[in-house]
Amino acid sequence: MDDQKKLTRAEQKARRPVQILDAAFEEFVERGYVATRVEDIASRVGVTKGTIYVYFETKEQLFEAMIRHISAPFEDLLSSVNELKGTATERLQKQIEQIYDLIINDRKLRELMRFVIAEGSRFPQIVDRHHDAFIYPLEQQMASLIEDGVKCGEFRAAPAAFADVVIAPAIAFLVFKLTFEDRRILDRDTYLKAHVDLILHGLCEPAFASGCL
């Protein structure tokens, strides 16, 4: 019995950092960075304020750790790009599709974006952290994929071969979803098809056009 209790306490201790980060996320997106108090995070977890400081020395450090924690699914997406097979066009289409799936299925990523939009003008360093954790790695992956397509003659070295432009419609979709929630529905499949069609018309070399589109 004592061993079971010790095991339970050990398991709880092992899970504590994740519990704190999840609670911090909820508090930050609900109250904003400035209004969030460490004691409120502790209360949500069911621990003392001092327990939070055992794992994170400052609120800023806790926020940075929370960003990394929430970015885990995004990092999985970036890793999966290296495993995609097929032509540059097929891989680009698949990556864009995965981005939309992540936007739709991961509430925490959506809410983090809402937080960044709301707090960004007052706390530019928060925006920079979000960009470094989410946007920049995606831009680099997309740029590398497009470069592969250009090198093999599948894509044109055109203005459309700019990672920010390729990603932009997905960001617009995310902002729409954040703004209207379920009050207005933007069909994912229709929007995705239009996004891919628009990008590939700008990227594909004429000789590859039929295969692209």
TrEMBL record:
This protein's record includes keyword Transcription regulation: yes
Entry keyword set: DNA-binding, Transcription, Transcription regulation
DNA-binding region: 37-56
Protein name, per record: Transcriptional regulator, TetR family
Domain HTH tetR-type: 14-74
InterPro entries assigned: Homeodomain-like_sf (IPR009057), HTH-type_TetR-like_transc_reg (IPR050109), HTH_TetR (IPR001647), Tet_transcr_reg_TetR-rel_C_sf (IPR036271), TetR_C_Proteobacteria (IPR039536)
A Gene Ontology molecular function term of the record: transcription cis-regulatory region binding
Keyword Transcription regulation included in the entry's annotation: yes
SUPFAM superfamilies: Homeodomain-like, Tetracyclin repressor-like, C-terminal domain
